[in-house]
């Protein structure tokens, strides 16, 4: 059998061990042979290849870590934004309820005092809150107090009439109070027909009138 000299077999074994370590995931594996022959050139080529593999792998791992951190930061930001939006929505709902409050006068009557200008958005809020509260409480009467509404135009009157009509369908009668002289003149001037709506000039008059009516009904 052939016997190869140690100067030939030893570097081959070193190269083999380095290749085994590299294939097993040890990217620091190097041959490290300093020879001026073909085996030395092969060892140097292996070491350069291993160095390139290690550099590229480290670079990919760094990019992956950076991307993972960016994804985690984006997810955290998304969750924070979602929480902020939820908080804003809760605050908006609270402000909406405060802008169109409904107060129970007794187990049959609700009072809705309106303050400030009524644009289309607030009119919709008034309608929604009024009908929801009537349905929830099964109230028989709703007093709409417009003392604090500076202007009653066609849009406002139409919106209030829709509340009246929808409330009637739910079995609730609406009384409109707080009609100041200038508001009454504006309503007449616009040709708005309040129809069968019960009206009173002040909230106190409306409440007193309604309580007397309820009392008479209970005594009948």
Automatic annotation (TrEMBL):
SUPFAM superfamilies named in the record: HAMP domain-like, SpoIIaa-like
Residue ranges occupied by any STAS domain in the UniProt entry: 99-210
SMART domains: HAMP (SM00304)
GO biological process terms, semicolon-separated: signal transduction
Boundaries of every HAMP domain copy: 6-58
InterPro entries: Bact_StressResp_Reg, HAMP_dom, STAS_dom, STAS_dom_sf
GO cellular component, one term: membrane
Pfam families: HAMP (PF00672), STAS (PF01740)
Database matches in PANTHER family: RSBT ANTAGONIST PROTEIN RSBS (PTHR33745:SF1), RSBT ANTAGONIST PROTEIN RSBS-RELATED (PTHR33745)
Protein name per Swiss-Prot or TrEMBL: Anti-anti-sigma factor
Native organism: Kouleothrix aurantiaca
Lineage: Bacteria, Bacillati, Chloroflexota, Chloroflexia, Chloroflexales
């Amino acid at each position: 059998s052939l016997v190869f000299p140690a100067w030939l077999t030893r570097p081959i074994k070193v190269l083999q061990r380095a290749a085994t370590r590299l294939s097993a995931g040890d990217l620091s594996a190097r041959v490290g042979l300093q020879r001026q022959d073909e085996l030395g050139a092969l060892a140097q080529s292996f070491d350069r290849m291993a160095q390139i593999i290690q550099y590229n792998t480290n670079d990919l791992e760094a990019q992956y870590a950076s991307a993972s951190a960016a994804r985690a930061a984006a997810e955290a930001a998304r969750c924070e934004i979602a929480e902020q939006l939820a908080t804003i929505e809760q605050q908006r709902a609270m402000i909406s309820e405060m802008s169109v409050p409904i107060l129970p006068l007794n187990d049959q009557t609700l009072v809705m005092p309106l303050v400030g200008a009524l644009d289309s958005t607030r009119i919709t809020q008034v309608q929604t809150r009024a009908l929801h509260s009537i349905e929830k409480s099964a109230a028989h009467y709703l007093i709409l107090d417009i003392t604090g509404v500076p202007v009653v135009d066609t849009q406002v009157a139409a919106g209030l009439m829709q509340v009246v009509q929808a409330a009637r369908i739910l079995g609730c009668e609406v009384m409109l109070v707080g009609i100041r002289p200038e508001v009454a003149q504006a309503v007449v001037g616009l040709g708005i027909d309040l129809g069968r709506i019960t009206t009173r000039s002040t909230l106190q008059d409306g409440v007193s009138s309604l309580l007397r009516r309820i009392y008479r009904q209970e005594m009948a």
